[in-house]
Amino acid sequence: MVPMHSAKPESAGSSVDNLSNGGRSSVEEGSSEAVIRRDPRNGQAFFGRAQVRYARGEYESALDDVDRARRLGYQTAEVYRLRGRCHGKLFLYDDVADDFSRVLEFSPDDPEAILERANAFNNLGCYDEALADYEHALGLGLASGALFLCRAGIWQDLGETEKAAADLRESRAYPAEVLPDPNWNHFRAHFWAGHGQHDVALKFFADAIHLEPDSVRHYGCRANLLLDLEREEEAEADLCKIQRIQVGEDELTMPENKTLIYPLVQEHFAEAPLDQINVTVRKWPYRAAADLQKAFERLDQADYVIKRFHATQQGAQHCGQPGAYEFAQNYARDRRNPLFAVPPQYQEIDIGEEEPVRAVKGGLWLLQAGDTPLIALLNPDYDGMLKVQVAVVNGPNGLKVTHDFYHHLEEAMRQSACYRGKVLSLEQREMYSGQGLGIMVHRIRKVARDEVILPRQTLDLVDRNVMQFVSHRPRLSALGLAVKKGLLFYGPPGNGKTHTIHYLTSSLPGHTTFLISAEQVVNLSDYITLARLLQPSMVVMEDVDLIARDRQEMRTPGEEIMLNKLLNEMDGLRQDAEILFILTTNRPSALEEALAARPGRVDQAIEFPLPDLDGRTKLTRLYALGIAVEEEAGRLALERTENVSAAFIKELMRRAIQFALARSVAEVRIEKADLEKALEELLVAGGSLNRKLLGAFDKGADAFAR
């Protein structure tokens, strides 16, 4: 049985759409314009122009003219009739009902006005009022196909199928020419098909197609009915017509000229019945596409014989997703929506190498594992995941082959590890969920050991808690000690926290680094999952105080949720997880105590203070970039940079080099005057805000004005 069409057509209007005014059926727009120019207070002229505009389909303009006529005192039944029809064309059914109520004040027994008000009530879902008006119109002698069809729709919605059938039978007395609306004929066809009147239904589908010959909907529904009636040749003709409409006669490729998938799949399984096929499904996040591609490329290395490979896509009625379907659709011919082989589609995925990975978007592999045939189907699922389906013939051997195949994928993905040893973050989907769809590879400048200028105590702590800790992991693990670690880098901004992290990423071979911004804490579970997969790894969260501030300073419940997420993930790491957590903050006093003062989350806090004299000397030399520095200039730089950040010294030397270049001497040399000008700009001319921005921390109001 074919179900009723889900959407009822809009209630039809009157079969008579001809307006008159005192015996005049229409008014030339030119004459109305002339009258309006001579007499802009002539309401009848505005109504005449409204008639012409309505006939041309300019419903908004017609409505403006009708309302102008009303304001000028020209109010007749025909004015409100035209106003109601304008509102109907704009789907403003409340106004339609009001307008035809006004018409009936002028002519209480006007059957057409009653019918049009009934249709407005019908479209508003006011069925009692609509049924009363339909009955009133019939009592006044008005009988039309539109009336019976509209009322049949109401009876159908109310579950009164016998009354609906009676009205539809009455409507058959009015041919399609009287009511040239293909939607109503489509509605009638579904109704009669649902009541087993198949010949009647096919007649109304034919009427709908006659009125709307390029409608895929009419052909598709008739083809479904014909297939249910086992009239396959007629159904095939309608399905081919749909193809011609959708792709055009010139580009039409008939099914017999394409590679159909289902015969290949059936042959591969020796035509075993579908109910003897076992299908197992697993899903991977979309960011695993590159590693999954590498795993499929290594099938032959795992002793799988690839009999055939096809990219697949369903026919014309599919929703456009290449391969987003279930395995069962490969195994039987779907006349409504057949599955064809198509040229493979690839996406290029950046993995931080010279060449991206080309990953196939969807495909079907016909494989042989020893004597056992199996089929693997890869396609993107509707939830944004990558779905792999493995099909085998039922039996113990088939189940073992399925298990072995997924084991191969897992091992090949682990060995491939397109992202292992790189610096990564998750890409964001532009939706409220913030779900990560892919992986972004960061190309960070390598920082050498001699470029890390820190106080000796700070450097020793970094070496002991990171470099030495990592080198001792095998022995720590053998002793049953934890090989995960949490570190907190804190101190004023611009003193080397981020710079040191770049050094660590350059100096820990094989470690994968994950950079998490504060707004990406919602994806923390995904980050930790990847960190476990790609361990040894380092998870870096800079400015952690943005989400891990003291609970009493939090302003919204969302902030506490993100903090709890961070704490739970740090607690949930197993002792043998080779993961370093590095958190940074410029405001350690603002941190939540549950994070900063609990062993097992943060094992060592390392201060990054302002550079001391030795540090400033090394920084001045480093950021001079090999350019000679006059002795007095060097001494001035050291004297005037007490209590400043490393970032300030870097900018100071850059500014001094600019002044040196401006002197246009043959050999660039930083002189005392260059340093003085640079200091003047940075410390005095820019004021206290500039000093704060650059990391010069005042000891007093006039500390730098000397």
Descriptive report:
- By secondary structure, the chain is an alpha/beta fold.
- Among the domains are: 175-252, Tetratricopeptide repeat domain (Serine Threonine Protein Phosphatase 5, Tetratricopeptide repeat), CATH 1.25.40.10; 261-416, no CATH class; 436-607, P-loop containing nucleotide triphosphate hydrolases (Rossmann fold, 3-Layer(aba) Sandwich); 613-694, Helicase, Ruva Protein, domain 3 (Orthogonal Bundle), CATH 1.10.8.60.
- 47% of the residues lie in helices and 14% in strands.
- It is built from 28 helices and 17 strands.
- The strands form four sheets. Strands 10-9-12-13-14-11-15 form a seven-stranded mixed β-sheet, with helices on both faces. It has a six-stranded antiparallel β-sheet with strand order 1-8-7-6-2-3, with helices on both faces.
- Strand 12 (512-516), helix 21 and strand 13 (537-541) form a beta-alpha-beta unit.
- Helix 8 (145-157) packs antiparallel against helix 9 and helix 10 (182-194) runs antiparallel to helix 11 (198-211).
- The longest helix has 21 residues, at 396-416.
